[in-house]
Amino acid sequence: MSCTPSDPLSTDVAVIGGGIIGLGIALEAQRAGHRIMLIDPEPARGATYAAAGMLAPVSELHYQEEDLLTLTLASAARWPGFARALADEGYPDIGFRTTPTLALGANAADRNALAQLREAQAKLGLDVARLSIREARKLEPLLSPDLVAAHLIAEDHQVDPRAVAAAIEARLLAAAQRSGHRADETVVRTRAVELLHENPANTRPRTRGVLLDDGREVHAREVVIANGLGATQLGGLPENLMLPLRPVHGDILRLRVPEHLRELCTATLRGMVRGLPVYLVPRNDGTVVIGATAREDGRDGVNAGAVHQLLRDAQALLPAVAELELLESTARARPGTPDNAPLLGRVEGPDGREMPGLLIATGFFRHGVLLTPIAAHIITELLAGVNDPAWDRFRPDRFSPALQEH
Ligand code: GLY
Questions:
Q1: Distance set, CA 129 to CA 123, 229, 321 (Å)
Q2: What is the CA(293)–ligand 1 centre distance, in A?
Q3: Which of 241, 256, 363, 380 ranks highest by number of CB atoms within 10 Å?
Q4: What confidence tens digit (pLDDT) does each residue in 198-227 have?
Q5: Record keywords: Oxidoreductase included (predicted)?
């Protein structure tokens, strides 16, 4: 039966945003027995499309981000089970690799910066082993002999975000089809424009769905806003809810390793090269990902200087990078927040009560792939009425002045 704009769609949980976070949430919600509807004109074509997929809570630790570390470590611990569950359901090809990470320094100042970071990591009980360059080159023979510092981080792994997204979407559609639901009403390829409320004049009462770009309404018991930077564009957000998201663009490259250079490396390499970070992530399919810049210039296109810098600095780690075939350069914006931590959970009103029917999961900044399993878990628990106070510090309303009652 075809739908006209006057036929509302209905579901248990509408997830706005089909990046890896929205997909992960839809997956766990569906496994928990909810009928889900994922709304995105182009699933997995935003930040997920660019992401390298490092599962790196230790090497991506930043000073003053200990709260975030609790979340990143909890999610890293969930990744093996998350990957296994997908494999058990028939989707094993997500590029989950438990190979280690090497942190490398190119000059004396880089060595000092890595040593200071290692001290901070050690104070937090994180396992980082110092290696000699000879030891590092035993592990990765193509590393440059000119490097001056190497640390081994055994627990920082990787996954292929595009493969994860494709696997989850296929899993969502297959399960929905088994329950007799249509594919185009499970993954709805259009834009969500506005939240619908029980009383449209008042944003305090229960959220009851979403208005789509094509005029259709989606009626849902719960709506999850998981569309990254797009969250602030949605109409009908609770009055005075501040979602302080800013775009932090990253340029990233994909290259093919010629047969004679395989395996170029097995570990993920994270370099500090004359003060600039660069990483190189080897994939199962003989490609590598080199990234990533972090710029706040608001420009969506790939920056030529960034491409030059990434290739130059990656060659300082592995000179053979010069012989690879450049396949792709991509730029995408990550959704940054003032404290670099996500906006995750329900929204509290001024009376201390949560606004029913509405959940938020955005602002994952540089950690969307890593944080997918824990975000999916936390949101699914909230859907079931379970709130773990450990995660209250990531509430989406923590930057909002008191939400006003109407
Ligand atoms: N997490 C890697 C990046 O944002 O570049």
A1: 13, 37, 26
A2: 8
A3: 363
A4: 876 665 678 999 999 999 999 999 999 999
A5: yes
